[in-house]
Amino acid sequence: MELNLQVVLFWVLMLHCGSAEGGILYRVQEEQPPNTLIGSLAADQGLPDSGHLYKLEVGAPYLRVDGKTGDIFTTEIPIDRETLRDCRSLTKGKPCYLEFEVSVTDLIQNQSPQLIEGRIEVQDINDNTPQFPSSVLTISVPENTIMGALFSIPLATDRDSDRNGVAGYALTAGPDAATLFGLQVADDRGGKLPQLIVLGNLDRELKDSYDLTIKAVDGGNPQRYSSALLRVVVTDANDNSPKFEKSMYEAEVLENSPVGHSVLQVKANDSDMGPNGEIEYTFHQAVDPVPKLLRIDRSTGVIYVKGPLDREELSILSFYVVARDKGPQPKSSKTFVNIEVTDQNDNAPAVEIRGIGLVTHSEGVANISEDMPIGTAVALVQVSDKDEGENAVVTCVVAGDVPFQLRPASDSSSDNKRKYFLQTTTPLDYERIRDYRVEIVAVDSGNPALSSTNSLKVQVTDVNDNSPVFSPALFEVDFAEENQPGEKVLDVRALDADSGTNAELLYNIVADSSIKGLFEIDPNTGEVRARSPLDREHKEQYEFRVTAADKGSPVHKGTATVVIKVLDRNDNDPKFMLSSYSFSVLENMPPLSPVGMVTVLDVDKGENAHVRLSVEPDGGKFVVQNGTGTILSSISFDREKESSYTFRLKAVDGGEPPRSSYVGVTINVLDENDNDPVVTKPANSSFRRLSPLASPDSHVELVEAEDLDSGSNAELVFSIAGGNPYQLFRISPSSGEITLAKEMTRKHSGLHRLVVRVSDRGKPARHATALVHVYVNETISNVSLVEALVGHSLYTPLDRDIAGDPDNGFAAQRSNILFGSLAGVAGVVMLILVVVFIRHRIQRETKSGYQAGKKETKDLYAPKQTPKNAKGKRGRKGKPQKSPKPLGEEEEVSLQKGLKFNLDGVNDSPRIHLPLTYSPGSPDIGRHYRSNSPLPSIQLQAQSPSASQKHQVVQDLPAANTFVGTGGDDNSTGSDQYSDYSYKTSQPKYNNKQVTCCYLPAPYALISSYLYSIWQGSTHHGNRNINRLRWDYEQKKKL
């Protein structure tokens, strides 16, 4: 830097913690050219020249600061000491200062800025020329003025200061005045006071005026000067000049004193008489603003307030007052007046808010980033008061509930000028509060106190510190299937609490393989569209994520879940799981029993999938349950009547319009073991003669049977259950063929009764019992005798074997004849009594009535009609009328309870229950007895149904020649009691067909058999039969 700049760095105090404890003083001459270096803060303060930001806060427009180094330079606007506001009213000799403030921000640690305060002493240069108040100066000098008298010359002023100010005066006079006048310059209060000195005698009559030249020269280098015409006017003589009582007057006046307020009075005395002693007061060489603020009474010398006094503008008024008499040649004198304007609390504190550091202000608005730390300075607040003393002591606060506070920025501040940092107290959040109105109130200590307010709008600027947020985070939408490609599904929206580009969002779908290509999203609007038709039946719900990314840096993203529920359209027919259904059910199931279940599905949903089923054609035989698809029968099946049923099921959904489908259903009726085997051959009452000489394995008889059931229920097994004590016979289990097992002896001659049991393979098995009579003899000479033996066999208990001749000797035969004859004689007598008793009994029973079966009007001895379609072969069956399904337990009991004796009372004879149904060709023993018996026949008649309560049921009518195990009466006795081969079965199939048979007393039956044999003329056989009958009779009596 050149020496002529005279820049001197003066350290007062160093900075500490960002605030100036003292200050920095630089000196620079005024009017320096632009970019003149004044000082370097970085170098001067020992701060690094990098990583810090220097910013000029106060000092513009005269100064600028380099942001990196802190160097202070002058600008295009020169610093003119004479025009600086703070230097215009300076007291002579006081230096002129230009204040500056520079903030230093640490960019690395991002701390609050430090404030450096300093002053620049603006040194004066001689850039101003001294100036006289006027180009012509007039001085009146009386003609009788003595030599050496002094007269004041109006002063020249120079805006420069000190040595550059007015340094001297020079007087130039013409030849005629050079001997009369001279110049004397006196020092007066640091200034130069030019005075005109009279060197000779003046004579007004010779010359009344003289023109001189006065020159004012400053002390600058080079010097600057100016000149004025000094005209000296010679007046008449005046002996005495006015004299002031004081050489200097001082007074105080309160600022803002009213106009006309008297400040002080100057007084001068003149010892002359008359007009020469009258004095007039005027201001002498008073410069602005004295003439505007004060006036002087010309007669009394009282100085009054003329204009508003403002201590802050001008605190001291200094001027001269001249007292002049009114003589022809007036004389005058002057005195110095100094008036101090005292302070009144008439100024409210001034609150100045300006930017600091990186926080810029524009039109009263400060912008600060929301991520700034606590304690960040938002503004520099300067509070000042133009008053002085207590009136200038100011208290400053932040009003309202805002997150800001004031912190002193400098400890070097004076009472009337303080500086504060306006800094944050809590973290700022743009998303919560975006701007604040900060009001700063300053109150002085005057009485009354004055206050002022200034405000700053703090706008919090956004940083990208928020991620986009979807509201809600889960989007659920219903969307109908079969849509058009590109159809809008929904709009997703996300909000970003940031602003600007930080809040501008781009939407995207995070798609997986399951939805890839199905949906798309508008990146700017968030509108989700379906790219292709959806099928609810393929997939009912889609779920994927969408993201929203802002355009800030760094980028922030938000995520939401989208769930699209595909709504159903009725676009599918109900569908049965099978193309056709076939069910198998057991017969005899009760009505409304389930026979099968169908499954029908409709892949639609809701009412579109609500399927109703119906039977077509609706014959009333089947119904179907909606909801379960269960098919119920309205009838009870009888496989023997109808083995299968075929119909269609119709399924109709609840859509609009409805859709339907059909399926065929076949019901196959399975057989149930509900029919007993029926022996069709031979008849129970028939017999077969077998020669005693027959060889083993000879064919004896073929038992044929059939079962109306099917399958295993119709597979029959034949066995000999009784009547084969000698093991003479055997039967084929499958074919029913009876053959001779071994050779026969003499004792084997006679009637053999084989009890053949025919069982099916059902579970539980059902069976029938047949009697096969084999008469072993060479010939049959007396058929009636054999038939009588067969008839007697029918009433013999099955547990008693009838196997050949029981007497096996002629002696036994003669005993039988003797006893038979005696029995016959007794029987004739008893017969009459029995007949009378029976008739009487029959009449009584007729009166009481009897419950017969459905066939009560038919001939009880008439043979049973063969079923229409019955076949003669075993194992084949037709379609006879079936009885209801048998009920009850299925356990096997004795084989013989079909024929039995019943006792109505203690004295009643045993009643023989006869099977009255025979197959065609079977011998009708009843008819034989009725037509051929020598005893009176008994007419058997069916009884009235009303008599059922007084009669025992004989038996359910079995099939012809077949004894069906039905369970017996344990109290029954006599020849009708079956053996233990009987068994108990289910309820007889013919339980509704009950008939009443004749009741023949046993003695009568025995005698009848004997008489019948006599009638046939066979004495040998008759004797044998009589013995047999007698033995039977004796056994019955014992029982």
TrEMBL record:
It is a single-pass type I membrane protein. Residues 28-132, 133-244, 245-351, 360-470, 471-576, 577-679, 703-799 form the Cadherin domain. Residues 848-894 are annotated as: Disordered. Residues 848-861 have a biased composition (Basic and acidic residues). The chain crosses the membrane at residues 817-838. It comes from the Eukaryota. GO terms for cellular component: plasma membrane. This is Cadherin domain-containing protein. The lineage of its organism: Eukaryota, Metazoa, Chordata, Craniata, Vertebrata.
